[in-house]
Amino acid sequence: MKSEEKQQLKDRINSEIENARKQVDELKELTQPIVPDAAIGRISRMEAINNKSVNEHLLEKTKARLMKLELSLSSIEKEDYGLCQICKQPIPLERLMMIPESNKCVDCA
Fold this sequence. Notes:
It is a single chain. The chain has three helices and no strands. With about 110 residues, it is mainly α. Helix 1 runs antiparallel to helix 2. The protein is elongated and about 60 Å long. The chain starts with a helix and ends in an 11-residue tail after the last helix.
């Protein structure tokens, strides 16, 4: 991988990390406990509980993605970065730009 391609990828990863961190902060707010004495109707309360559950799941997925992005950023200078973990063939730059945390080529994924 060329140095300018690595720099493009670093910029992309840093941007994705920043977005993921913002999303984690927002989701933490949305997953706060629902106060039992809140003055909302029964149906609205059930919807709020359901939304909280969905947001908790999204929060966990976002945290996992953030960890993968940070790992990708820390390993971008390694010799084997950008190689598929399964077939050891280069992962196309376009795929890495779309999914920077990817460690497998399309065929192996």
